[in-house]
Amino acid sequence: MKSFFVLLTFLMTLSATAAEYKLAVITSEFDNDTTDFFLETNDAGEMHSIRYVSTSPSGQITEDNSIPAETVLREGGVLAHRQGRDVVKLFVEPGFNIKVGGDVRLTYLQSGVSNNWRFIPLKVTKEGEGFKLTDAENSLVNRLFMLVNRSRLFGIIGIKEIQYYFE
């Protein structure tokens, strides 16, 4: 009987364990760093946090941050900083659920001079045991590329646009 409970406990831990799902790789014209964007789940398979890991061209980790789901739901999360400013933020839309995902808004600083922000509507959705990132038309997205916005007077002032695609 004791071995039955041990086996049952083992099987339950196999079906529900914390995991990390890579949603996208973020690169830019700003630098040659690569940022891996993850969604982390708890043992119940619900969103626990978002995490991003930035790596230099030499492979050295320059940033490794996790933002708890409660913070993301309440105030969003910063995914990229440049020159002391937040330049890319992720916000969840009303109706987002940590069990199944929902609509998110990826906002980016188009101009630091005028403080003008733009956004891309995306979705984080549960697929099987994991999560994926899609665009508004439900096409899979796993790469984001930031194009710089330049000014003749100031140089780089923000992000012209973020291109997204599946590779």
Molecular structure report:
- This protein has 167 residues and is mostly beta strands.
- The protein is built from two helices and eleven strands; from the N terminus they run αββββαβββββββ.
Secondary structure tally, helices: 2
The averaged pLDDT comes out at: 89
Structural class by SSE content: mainly beta
The rounded Rg comes to 18 Å
Helix and strand run: HEEEEHEEEEEEE
Q: Using the alpha-carbon principal axes, give the shape.
A: globular
**Could you tell me the number of beta strands?**
11
Strand order of the largest sheet: 4-3-2-1-10-11
Major pleated sheet: 6 strands, mixed
Strand percentage lies at: over 45%
Low-confidence stretches: 1-15
* Helical content class: 10-25%
Distance N terminus to C terminus?
A: 50 Å
What would the keywords be for this entry?
59% strand; globular; 6-stranded mixed sheet; 5-stranded antiparallel sheet; 2 helices
How would you sum up this structure in a few lines?
The protein has about 170 residues and is mostly beta strands.
What's the SSE blueprint?
Blueprint: H1 2-15, E1 19-28, E2 34-41, E3 47-55, E4 61-68, H2 69-75, E5 77-82, E6 85-92, E7 101-111, E8 116-127, E9 130-135, E10 143-151, E11 155-165
Parallel strand pairs: 1-10
Antiparallel strand pairs: 1-2, 2-3, 3-4, 5-6, 6-7, 7-8, 8-9, 10-11
